[in-house]
């Protein structure tokens, strides 16, 4: 059974374009957040922070191939 | 009978997909450019979510288990394939605590506790918990809860504007918003129970679109409700009752005849990766 997607072919291409375009927003925000976070870390606060753990969280990357392979177990189950 | 059910489901699916497609186009034309949610709003959301994630991780340590975290990320990314917020990069991490809970910080930061992972019976239930949290982010529940956006018609007074502007006022507003979110996470929950029901509903459809058992979230709630009152105290304190959520989920499943679908649960793969 074919992979189910909310979007059709053209829309998927559009989606990829949007992801590329908006990745600049994400990157800028993450960079801004990192700098700002480190400043705030020095100042302390009501709740303790763990920025290295955030960087660990951001380090996990799944390739397209890995995800396709992982998804294959669900392909027969999709309606 | 089964043919009829499948036909009905496909009709609902096609309608939902078309609606989602339309929503996507609308967002593309409005929110990412000059509409209600600007690029600055999104940047502020990610910035805020990252800070909040650091606070969650200051409270509960990350579970230092790369196999588990990689697995969670794979399940999460499958669900995100159907996200209606392509501007976000979703990230997933397990927290090393016995407490049964999960959290979603704005901007795409999703957490699930080791206690919750101990309670899930199969991969579909894990996906259900992550899908519920993704639902909060997709619907911007927390963004709305702390007013993290430029107010319509009053762009100068929005928290986003203050955050992007920097300075002492921004720092104070930022800290207050982070503290308010920590209180929502760990003490009060979202004021609107409808937000929780909406995230549950989103989870049902995300599960179905990916190919997971649509009733997985209901199954998980039924197990947690009967087995782990103490460990699940956090959820009970900050969320509507399990009974109400189960009832709503049953209604969603039966109304759309999703309860008739036999989709994947993948119990074995969960155990290979978690147990």
Structure description:
The complex is a heterodimer of chains A (79) and B (275). Chain A is mainly α. Chain A has one domain. In chain A, 68% of the residues lie in helices and 0% in strands. Chain A is built from three helices and no strands. Chain A has helices spanning 9-43, 51-57, 64-75. The longest helix of chain A is centred in the N-terminal third of the chain and has 35 residues, at 9-43. Chain A is elongated, with a radius of gyration of 19 Å. Chain B is mainly alpha-helical and 275 residues long. Chain B has 13 helices and three strands; from the N terminus they run αααβββαααααααααα. Chain B has helices at residues 2-29, 39-59, 66-80, 114-119, 123-138, 141-145, 159-165, 167-188, 193-210, 216-227, 233-238, 242-255, 267-274; strands spanning 91-95, 102-105, 109-113. Chain B has a three-stranded mixed β-sheet with strand order 1-3-2. In chain B, helix 10 packs antiparallel against helix 12 (242-255). Chain B starts with a helix and ends with a helix. Residues 20-35 and 150-157 of chain B have low confidence and may be disordered. Chain B: One of its GO terms (cellular component) is membrane. Chain B: Its cofactor is Zn(2+). Chain B: It comes from Marinospirillum celere.
Question: Can you tag this structure with a few keywords?
Answer:
heterodimer; A: 79 residues; disordered N terminus; B: 275 residues; mainly alpha; three-stranded mixed sheet; 13 helices; 65% helix; globular; Peptidase_M48 (chain B); metalloprotease (chain B); protease (chain B); signal (chain B)
């Amino acid at each position: 059974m074919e992979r189910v997607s909310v979007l059709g072919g053209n829309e998927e291409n559009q989606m990829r374009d949007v992801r590329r375009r908006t990745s600049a927003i994400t990157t800028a925000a993450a960079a801004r957040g990192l700098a700002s976070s480190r400043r705030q870390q020095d100042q302390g606060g009501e709740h303790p922070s763990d920025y290295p753990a955030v960087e660990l969280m951001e380090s996990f990357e799944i390739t397209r191939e890995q995800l396709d392979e992982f998804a294959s177990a669900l392909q027969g189950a999709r309606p | 009978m089964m043919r009829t059910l499948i036909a009905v489901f496909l009709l609902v699916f096609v309608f939902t997909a078309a609606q989602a497609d339309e929503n996507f186009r609308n967002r593309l034309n409005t929110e990412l450019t000059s509409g209600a949610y600007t690029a600055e709003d999104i940047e502020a959301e990610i910035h805020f979510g990252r800070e909040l994630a650091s606070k969650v991780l200051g409270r509960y340590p990350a579970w230092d288990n790369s196999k588990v975290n990689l697995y969670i990320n794979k399940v999460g990314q499958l669900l995100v394939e159907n996200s209606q917020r392509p501007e976000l990069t979703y990230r997933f991490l397990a927290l090393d605590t016995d407490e049964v809970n999960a959290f979603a910080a704005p901007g795409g930061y999703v957490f699930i506790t080791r206690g919750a992972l101990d309670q899930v019976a199969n991969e579909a239930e894990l996906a259900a918990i992550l899908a519920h949290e993704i639902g909060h982010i997709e619907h911007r529940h927390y963004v709305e809860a702390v007013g993290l956006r430029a107010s319509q018609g009053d762009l100068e007074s929005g928290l986003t504007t203050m955050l992007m502007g920097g300075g002492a006022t921004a720092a104070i507003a930022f800290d207050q918003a982070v503290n308010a979110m920590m209180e929502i996470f760990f003490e009060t929950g979202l004021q609107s129970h409808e937000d929780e029901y909406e995230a549950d509903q989103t989870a049902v459809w995300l599960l179905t679109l990916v190919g997971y058992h649509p009733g997985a979230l209901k199954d998980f709630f039924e197990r947690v409700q009967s087995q782990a009152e103490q460990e699940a105290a956090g959820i009970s304190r900050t969320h509507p009752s399990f009974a109400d959520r189960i009832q709503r989920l049953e209604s969603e499943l039966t109304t759309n005849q999703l309860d008739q679908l036999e989709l994947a649960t993948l119990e074995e793969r969960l155990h290979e990766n978690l147990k």
